Amino acid sequence: MNSKQPTTKSFDAIYADYSNPNGRVMITAHRGNWRQAPENSVLAIQCSIDAGVDVVEVDVQRTKDGRLVLMHDDTVDRMTDGSGRISELTFDAIRALQLKEGQGGEDTAATAALIPTLHEVMLLAKDKVMVNLDKCWHIREDVYQVLVNTGTVKQGLFKSTAGVEEVQEFLSGKSERPEFMQLINGSNAHLLDQTDEIITRVQPKAFELNFAKDDSPVISDVTLRRLKGKCRIWVNTMFDADCGGHTDAVSLTNPKLGWDWHLGRGVNMIQTDSPKELYAHLNPGSK
Length: 287
Prior knowledge:
Blueprint: H1 11-18, E1 26-29, H2 42-50, E2 55-62, E3 68-70, H3 91-95, H4 118-125, E4 130-134, H5 140-150, E5 156-160, H6 164-171, E6 179-184, H7 195-201, E7 206-209, H8 221-227, E8 232-236, H9 240-243, H10 248-253, H11 259-263, E9 269-272, H12 275-282
Parallel strand pairs: 1-2, 1-9, 2-4, 4-5, 5-6, 6-7, 7-8, 8-9
Antiparallel strand pairs: 2-3
Helix pairs in contact: 2-4, 4-5
């Protein structure tokens, strides 16, 4: 990002903004800033922090011997010079692999970067940014313990499509309550009729809305009226199927059909593969 963009903001300020349902638009970097470093790597996360994003999204997997590491896929094939399912590999075997550049792939060069542990990443992010914890609801208690051990419970953002009872069971009875975002998509759209109950009993500070088409009830005017002023509204603009085609790619050529389409509906958290460009769009004086 250019030199006029603030590259540091206190975590307290980020958390205060996140806790304000009517606050400024917040930017989440998808799998870290993978355009500058391997996705889900320490460097990708550091680049995101340096760029001044509010939230870094990471994907958490558990190794055969119970260690929590960062990787989107269930296997290491796409992102490393090795192969195999993470759940069938020991941590030592995984740590011996080298991450590939960017988003990896068969013909992508390997780097010197290693697969990080969640513990390492939370220490890196401590007192700097929030961390959106993806792909790990099924191992949420293990993930929560890492947050406790690193003193970052306030920074870790869990999310799930689960119903009220399951979420409440996880959130209650802990010495420090985890942060939770309710995820709504086509698989659990029935929860749209329970938004008031979710807000009252679960008290999420945000709802993540995933929708394939504009006419989806997930993004309807009725849904948005139920949420506005009570919770933040989060969308993902990386893939067509998650945001009705109003993606980063569209935004870079016609923002009225991309990011502005979401902003016009009251969205105030955007997860993106183009954090630099989104920041410039939200802050035109920084160009």
